[in-house]
Amino acid sequence: MQAAWPAGWTLYDNFTMFAEKVNKLSAGRLKIETLPAGAIVPPFELLDAVHKKVLDGAHSWAAYWVGKNKTAVLFTGGPGGTHGMDFIDAMGWMYEGGGLQLYNEFYRDVLKVNVIAIPILPAGPQAFGWFKRPIKNLADFKGMKCRQTGMAAEVFTAMGMRTVNMPGGEILPAAERGVIDCAEWVGGVEDLRAGFHNIWKYHYTPGMHENVTIGELIINGDVWKKLPPDLQEIIHTAATETFFRWWMRWQRQHADALKELQEKHKVNILKTPDDILIEFLKTWDKIAAQEAAKNPFFKKVWESQKQYASFVVPTKRFMFPPYEFAADHYWPRKK
């Protein structure tokens, strides 16, 4: 199996953690060889490679396939949540709201690819991005040439940004050559490992483009069918455990990384202006509505998510205390 990310990045750690867990749970009956981005095919060709059995499987992100059908972005969680959902809500929709069935129906019946998909990677909430100069409002980033990808790039383009699509491993070389003025990747520890602080010193967070973003494990359908039921269940179980176990580690890594970025590398860690976040959600809602009007399967998934969110999001908002309520009590914000 091949990943969409280079070895040494935390996203790749998720991949190797999964492979190790499968090996342990299966008592060595199933071993997964993990390969980094580009080992066999470029990152944006992984879906086709798995379909054609060039690879048995891949560790990737569904929004890379929006060029085939924009519905793909919704299976990552989608911009804005979607419909205000957080990671737990989005996974709830996957497993309790019919999302996983729609996910595999999309690949099987819409894209006509012979793969099965399993959620595995909670790569967020993601930062707004890195910039060569400060941005104080929406007008400040208009005209800047920035690495974005998926449907988020379409939204940012509509907001006035000049967007460039490229895999994560190509961001730093492009920045070093001055091809781009800014970039979105992940944030925190992932961006520290990538070395973006060596080029840019202004880092803004949070973002609404991938406040929820879920990576996928895709496996060739024929390979999957040849596995006995117990090994199929081990893969599902290992993917779910990896999702949460890796996420726990990642949160601590983020805290350490932000401290290092600020204190050692003198990066300005700044809050994204609210008007940018609000405008992003408004623009995304318009683009999503336009896509739903012409893409039946996008509409089907979009409405399924909306129906699920209509129950869980208002309930959680009522039952859960705001995170900042206790956080500000124990850890007052510095003024």
Structure report:
The mean pLDDT is about 95. The longest helix is centred in the last third of the chain and has 35 residues. With about 325 residues, the protein is α/β, with parallel strands linked by helices. The radius of gyration is 20 Å and the shape is globular. The chain has 13 helices and 10 strands. The strands form 2 sheets. Strands 6-5-7-4-8-10 form a 6-stranded mixed beta sheet, with helices on both faces. α4 packs antiparallel against α12, α6 crosses α11 and α11 packs across α12. The chain has a domain of about 170 residues: 3-Layer(aba) Sandwich (D-Maltodextrin-Binding Protein, domain 2), CATH 3.40.190.170. The termini are far apart. α6 links the parallel β5 and β6.
**What is the number of helices?**
13
Number of strands: 10
CATH architecture classification of the domain at 2-125 and 211-252: 3-Layer(aba) Sandwich
Tell the overall outline. globular
User: Helical residue percent?
Assistant: 40-55%
Distance between the ends: 48 Å
CATH class of the domain at 2-125 and 211-252: Alpha Beta
| Sheet with most strands: strand arrangement | 6-5-7-4-8-10
Order of helices and strands: EHHEHHEEHEHEHEHEEHHEHHH
Poorly predicted tracts of residues: none
In short:
The protein has 13 helices and ten strands. It is an alpha/beta fold and 335 residues long.
Helices and strands in order:
Elements (H helix, E strand, L loop, with lengths): L1 E2 L6 H16 L20 H6 L5 E4 L26 H10 L2 H12 L4 E8 L6 E3 L6 H4 L3 E3 L2 H9 L3 E3 L6 H6 L5 E2 L4 H7 L7 E4 L8 E7 H6 L2 H35 L4 E4 L2 H21 L1 H24 L3 H8 L5
Parallel strand pairs: 1-2, 5-6, 5-7, 8-10
Antiparallel strand pairs: 2-9, 3-9, 4-7, 4-8
Helix pairs in contact: 1-10, 3-4, 4-12, 6-11, 8-10, 11-12
